[in-house]
Amino acid sequence: MDATGTWEYHGPAELGKWLKTEQRNNKVRFQLELQRGSPSYNSGWIEGEFELHDKSGTFQKTFYGRLCEITFQFFSNHVEISQSAGSDSDCGFGNNVWAQGRLKRKSRSIPKFTNNDPRTGD
Question: CATH number for the domain including 21?
Answer without folding.
Answer: 2.40.128
